[in-house]
Write a structure and sequence with these properties.
- By secondary structure, this protein is an alpha+beta fold.
- The chain is built from 11 helices and 22 strands.
- Strands 5-4-8-2-1-12-15-14 form an 8-stranded mixed β-sheet, with no helix packed on it.
- The longest helix has 18 residues.
- The protein is globular.
- The two termini are 41 Å apart.
- Bound molecules: arginine (ARG) and zinc ion.
- Belongs to the peptidase M1 family.
- This is Aminopeptidase N.
- One of its GO terms (molecular function) is aminopeptidase activity.
- It is an enzyme of class 3 (hydrolase).
Amino acid sequence: ARRGAVLRRGIVAGTVPIAVTALLAAADPAGAGTTGAAGAGDPYFPLAGNGGYHVSHYDLTLRYDPGSRHLDGTAVLAARATQRLTGFDLDLKGLKVTGVTVDHAKAAFRRDGQELVVTPRTALRAGRPFRVTVTYGGTPGPVTDPDGSLDGWIPTDDGAFVAGEPQGAMTWFPANNHPRDKSSYDFTITVPRGHTAVANGLYLGSRTAHGRTTFRWRQREPMAAYLATATVGKFKVEQYTTRDGLKVYNAVDPRETNAAAPVLKKLPSVLEWESRLFGPYPFRAAGAVVDHARDVGYALETQSRPLYDSAPDLGTLVHESAHQWFGDSVSLTRWKDIWLNEGFATYAEWLYAEQHGGQSAQKEFDALYARPAGDELWAFPAGDPGSGRNIFATPVYARGAMTLHELRRAVGDPAFFRILRAWASGHRDGHGTTAQFTALAKRISGRDLDGLFHTWLFTKGKPSTP
Ligand code: ARG
Ligand code: ZN
């Protein structure tokens, strides 16, 4: 999606220079030129993502210098056209693009807000696989989200905290920046010796030469762009393999090791507990990055390796771990359904407390339900945040979890956990919507749950009966 929709239409309508028009005519003799849609069609973030193609793989080669804060990158995208394409967009904010090729031929490009508009020399027919290479560089920085929080490439005193939800991926690589498009990733990241660059998936090794170290990472299972990271810092690294064969890689800022160690020790048991509840852990790698970036103010469930801005408490570890099933493996189709991520991860915290000698989920629910009608908790229903500004607001998390608790009470524990497992397995490495979840819950339980979901997900204000 880009702001210059009129301009883009202009290409087809012939308001572009003669040479370009001639080129398009040659590539598209029928004159039915089609550029990929401006956005993925998400009303909360209309500029996010793009239409007309799917990216199956990103190969990102980056070099970052924490001192000068300069980033150089080469992104190679393996894509497939889902329609005939005379042009398409990538999302990229800031940075300078020095070249774009499509299948090794130089392509024309221009910048338009967060859009990198690419015009390949010849049109791509529908279904055709193609390869895009973008070389770029500059000083990356974060984006400010509608709620005022920062995401993307966030410089720290010893590197960068790189977290992309919902929009920040485009601050450090050209992306089809919407969770609707999931891809595998390779990362090759070079940083000054003494620094560590941590990305998603399996650690493939590192090499030091000429005062620089290059780290290689591979995320094989499909991943939404917002879950990618390339966090850089001075970290203490720990690696081991769990009983279940998961490859764990933890990177911890030395300023956080004392506080983080006792919590990180619990990661294998938390993942085992969640696997019993939700079904097999969806990835082959696991771990954590604990940075010292207190101005960030949140953690992120970066795929296979959540990212914390300081030593997490156990609840936060449980929360980000639960997102590996709910949010990462099962991705959103649209940001409006964000309760499918945050309500579920929050409810996982409640379940963990309940089963580990803490407060029961019912008590959590009751304490929240006791809040007065004017409380922010009741500002909007969990399934309808209204805009991108509210996707991380209290009702998404707390009322989302309350919705699951009400579902559990209505259908009973056996059916409830069958529903959670069926959701995770049926949509593994894929996507889901609220409507698909409510339909699944009804099918598995055999109950009429329309009233319950209508009340908790879609009715404004505090529900009159719990
Ligand atoms: N998904 C994260 C969580 O675990 C929150 C991310 C917040 N991002 C932001 N830009 N404020 O709850
Ligand atoms: Zn969360």
